[in-house]
């Protein structure tokens, strides 16, 4: 039987760094969504802004029943007081515990998906010897998977960078046939499984200007990218490219694909942040559970001032709900409140 919205397992929201804007945008997201999009906050209730009605819960399902009246909080007691804009390394273990708790609840089916608040990696390293470059690598380790892919998504565009946080001069050496193949396969599977797109259309950018222009501006397209795409086309994947990146992102071009796979960080992120700076969502593909995150950091410079924008978090919560519905075959849409 198809579940009603009230019966669905809620989305888990891990607190992230409490000295950042995470608690503030969690409160704002709850105020705008209320019971229309049940989620619960995993963290210390003391960190939620004063004036926000909260209700401590014992199980995720409790969130479904109380979210219309108060922000549901699955409590974790942090050892140190929280000062906006000033991360305390003593709270690092609590931040990590919130992430791990969220993963456990999603894996058990008690939560439909995990949305993660932004973390501060230095505070985690200083306070808990956090050994991972970031959220994504830690989640992959908890899930026991070797490779995951980052997708940024908004209503107008989805993009996947093959290489991410490396210097531009290192991109050609890191852009291997194996890496490109794995990225495309993970993306294709995730669009089918997690977004309900039966036959994903994937557009692939070239590395060089004008996709190399037949070798005149570089040979990566000829020597590596095209052979990879041809091999995957023979496996019946719907792939176009390599395409010139400067003509891929206007409105008419975007009608022809479901996701754009780009060769490096800025090639992917500039177009999506231009189209929807506040509404972009970070989605981790390749995990055995749903994980989304707002596409911004802790914003220590504005934390505690009441001016943080919750749009990206709301979009991330809605995306997690949409993916959970697609994964279970439930066609009921999430609220489009932004």
From TrEMBL:
Alphabetical keyword list: Cobalt, Cytoplasm, Magnesium, Metal-binding, NAD, NADP, Oxidoreductase, Pyridoxine biosynthesis, Zinc
Catalysed reaction equations from the record: 4-(phosphooxy)-L-threonine + NAD(+) = 3-amino-2-oxopropyl phosphate + CO2 + NADH
Class of this enzyme: oxidoreductase
Regions crossing the membrane: none
Pfam families in the record: PdxA
Cited Gene3D superfamilies: Isopropylmalate Dehydrogenase (3.40.718.10)
GO cellular component: cytoplasm
The keyword Nucleotide-binding appears for this protein: no
Residues the entry annotates as binding substrate: 135-136, 273, 282, 291
Cofactor(s) of this protein: Zn(2+); Mg(2+); Co(2+)
Single biological process term from Gene Ontology: pyridoxal phosphate biosynthetic process
A GO term for molecular function: zinc ion binding
Binding site for a divalent metal cation: 165, 210, 265
UniProt subcellular location: Cytoplasm
Oligomer status and interactors: Homodimer.
Function: Catalyzes the NAD(P)-dependent oxidation of 4-(phosphooxy)-L-threonine (HTP) into 2-amino-3-oxo-4-(phosphooxy)butyric acid which spontaneously decarboxylates to form 3-amino-2-oxopropyl phosphate (AHAP).
Protein family according to the UniProt entry: Belongs to the PdxA family.
Additional notes on this entry: The active site is located at the dimer interface.
Name used for this protein in its record: 4-hydroxythreonine-4-phosphate dehydrogenase
